[in-house]
Amino acid sequence: MSTADVAETTAPILHLRGPILLGPEEELAEAWVAGGVIHHEKPELPAGTEVREIDGIVVPGLADLHCHLGIADGGGGTTLAEAREQALVDRDTGVLLVRDAGSIIDNSPLQQQGDLPRLIRCGRHLARTRRYLIGYADEVEPEELPAAVTREAGRGDGWVKLVGDWIDRAAGDLSPCWEAEDFVAAADAAHAAGARITTHTFDEETLPLVLDAGFDCLEHATGLTGETIPRVAEAGIPVVTTLVNVDEFETYAAQGEGKFPAYAAHMRRLRASRYERTRDAHDAGVQLLVGTDSGGVLGHGIIHDELDELAAAGLTGTEILEAATWAPRRLLGVPGLEDGAPADLLVVPADPRIDHRALRERSHIVLGGRQVA
Ligand SMILES: [Zn+2]
Fold first, then answer.
1. Taking a C-beta distance cutoff of 8 angstroms, is the pair 233, 285 a contact?
2. Gap from CA of 67 to ligand 1 centroid (Å)
3. Cβ(344)–Cβ(118) under 8 Å?
4. Where in the chain is the domain with CATH 3.20.20.140?
5. Distance, CA 328 to ligand 1 centroid (Å)?
6. How far is the CA of 323 from the centre of ligand 1 (A)?
7. pLDDT tens, position by position, 130-166
8. Could you read off the pLDDT of 215-270 as tens digits, one per residue?
9. Residues lining ligand 1 (ion), CB within 5 A?
10. How far is the CA of 68 from the centre of ligand 1 (A)?
């Protein structure tokens, strides 16, 4: 049976006996799923229609805002079939919405497969020549950057991803890959093309440059300081956390230590301050979003580890749910559990607002109104 056939098969009507968590402060006692969408009122059903009763707390499907579908373990592009397998691994952990943060292959055909998480793509990473992981990015020089941004804006789904900083081997430390005017030109090109632009950034020095340039989102943002956190909060720019990846900075430091001791020390400092900085950003009003950075270095299926890291940084269950469900859906313009929204949801046995680890104990994963796991 092809994916299209599966989508056409009638799914059973579901009666969700809640509560249905519509937002941090808002819940509904019960809801129904019919015709692939959520109904807040019981829909009219022909006599004798089978209705499946489901008990449990209902939350929107989790969102992974920084995921790479189509990058093989250890680097290099996957086949499309392998990228599909990656998406299925993520889906079966409850991830039903993915923003792909840069892929080596064109993974857009996955968007036609109705049994996979909804996919919003950045296209290919853009990086400065020899200033990123080998083979991942389209590598350009400053004079080529605006045209490359325009091209990726046309290939993605309204997002462009620029690698803002990386180790500068001549300097032996992290440093911005671009001048201030290059960041401005990149942001202007993205916005002129109707896209938003986000940046991979580890370093402290890069953040003022991308804030001045008007970037729309920050990935990792390990270089946030007491000076830049209020600016990010004021500008309303979200930060995608990737704390599982930041924990790996010790590995990068150890690998680089012999040749690049300043870089190694810098990476260790950024790692050591990760929870405090995340908490400070949250307390200052910065919107945190969950991202795993799965694909390439880290495997797929790790979103619950990322949620545990947010808890380690001090976020409550409700705050973690906000970062993993409602906030990313608002940012991407994808509905949650509103009346008439596509039924992309999880049913969990205990209240994740009290303890986020309830999200690991899903009893049902429903995607497009159909139970997939
Ligand atoms: Zn990444």
1. yes
2. 6
3. yes
4. 62-332
5. 17
6. 18
7. 999 888 999 999 999 999 999 999 999 999 999 999 9
8. 999 999 999 999 999 999 999 999 999 999 999 999 999 999 999 999 999 999 99
9. 101, 293
10. 7
